[in-house]
């Protein structure tokens, strides 16, 4: 069966994943009883997630002819002889009005009829709610014949609730286990202290004292040794720790002399860093100058590979480089961040395809820009994530992991998580539906 992209605007996109069958028509009868049979209307309606009766009725309304869809046989007829290109053009108008999201253009929408008998399209990808023009003739038919609710939606919600409760119970059990371990450690340490004091009090070396310890005490000691093995010892290399060690080891006079030399070296290092125009955090470039340098590279028409190679030579952290690249790409953009990033996705693809964890750096860069009082970027965060996901720049697992960490982190009260929630829910629903299939 020949397939085509849903929506005329996506016809040239070879990687577009939303597809539908090409329309097949057949003219039946003669004279006044001539009819056009849309042979694969059921398959087309299934790809659009709309009832076949809606598309058939729309053809009749637009052509001013009688139309009928038979639920039992699955046949769709429109009175009169109509060629395939004409009906395909009407189907594109139907997709624009009743299938595609008015915000992001995604065809994964759901028809919602409000209490005031108004028709809306709720997008499962970006969460945008589109208001359908009620002056169209088909709207009265839709209101009288509302779409059936999706099967299994209640079961999915129940499963999600049960999964959340199971996770909460698991976390509570882990906390209780940690408390028990701490109590055992305290008891073992107190018992070992009591044993040492008793052994000191006994002065005579009798055979009872030289005998082997009881079996229970051996088990406790072995358990303490096993718990101590898990502890990782490391030396604090900070300046304050060095000062403390110097003061403990040297005399008062020599310690003062050493501390004076350390202060001089620190002062000299700060002066050198200021003279070179660099910040104090490890000799790296200031973030503002890093952004300006990336902007100038983009204005000179530097390619994605050349820019990535140039960024590697700069002295800054990986997160600062990624944040500077992302901020430079959307500089001067007030609306339509997602479209701008799709145009420049080659730069982000080259930056996120490098070292491990680079996709998380890109997600944190998006988070940093949205938290910098950029209200427009904050509003479009779901569209940005959707665009980068469709362009294969970001993977589903990294997006979900970043979202879950953000809800538990210091910025859990930020609006970015609320705005990104519709896209995350759409990702999880799409994954669960593919697993069921």
TrEMBL record:
Pfam entry (one): eIF-5_eIF-2B
Domain W2, first and last residues per copy: 280-437
Stretches with biased composition (Basic residues): 179-188
GO molecular function: eukaryotic initiation factor eIF2 binding; GDP-dissociation inhibitor activity; GTP binding; translation initiation factor activity
Gene Ontology cellular component list: cytosol
InterPro entries named among the record's database cross-references: ARM-type_fold, IF2/IF5, Transl_init_fac_IF2/IF5_dom, Transl_init_fac_IF2/IF5_N, Transl_init_fac_IF2/IF5_Zn-bd, W2_domain
Ranges of Basic and acidic residues composition bias in the record: 147-178, 266-277
Recorded family membership: Belongs to the eIF-2-beta/eIF-5 family.
Function: Catalyzes the hydrolysis of GTP bound to the 40S ribosomal initiation complex (40S.mRNA.Met-tRNA[F].eIF-2.GTP) with the subsequent joining of a 60S ribosomal subunit resulting in the release of eIF-2 and the guanine nucleotide. The subsequent joining of a 60S ribosomal subunit results in the formation of a functional 80S initiation complex (80S.mRNA.Met-tRNA[F]).
Protein's name according to its UniProt entry: W2 domain-containing protein
